[in-house]
Amino acid sequence: IVVALVFSYSIYAVSLEIAQMGYDPAYVPLAIPLMKALGSILFTLWSVYSLCKTRENIRLRYSIPEERCIGCEDLCCSLWCSCCTTAQLLRHTGEYEKYRGKLFTQDGLEAGAPEAV
Hints:
- It is a single chain.
- The protein has four helices and no strands.
- By secondary structure, the protein is mainly α.
- The chain has a domain at 1-80.
- The chain crosses the membrane at residues 30-52.
């Protein structure tokens, strides 16, 4: 975590230095599109990984077996249809039609809401 924070701070510092440079709008330094592409790729990989691990933990918690793509179903679902995977996790872990969602709680629901299975 510390290495990631130092790395991201370094990229941020370099980005600020580049932003302060005076340059011709017709010429964009190669570093700017490269950093943008790298940031987009890293964010996409992190998003897929975190959704995959969340889905895996939910399946283990509620003893839900894999049905297709045994061994990589979580990755496939997270990679190819992240919106559907997120909706599936929300439907399975709470009754959002009856109870309001709440940030920074153990289950994402307001106090007193029963645990859905």
